Amino acid sequence: MTPTELYxxxxxxxxxxxxxEEETQKMGxxxxxxxxxxxxxxxxxxxxxLRNGAKGIDEWVSLDKGNAYVIKNYKWMTVGYNSKYSSTxxxxxxxxxxxxxx
Length: 102
Description:
The chain is an alpha+beta fold. It has 3 helices and 4 strands, in the order αβαβαββ. β3 (68-82) and β4 form a beta hairpin.
């Protein structure tokens, strides 16, 4: 999945507002937690990985008492290899900041 695809799809799966860093200043947002890390539970597909990641983002934003987030970084980590099928298992790792915006 390309960065553009991730940045277009993931925000449609969250209830929290997806922001770019520069938007936080324009909207008068307050950063609640910097550098939050979340490793999403493994899904059976990339889209399911994203859905699990979105759920985790929403849970952390809610726990921080915020309503928005900024993605700082992400990556799919290889967590297993099935030699019989020559396939790898991956897990989505997301770094983000949580915000409270007006």
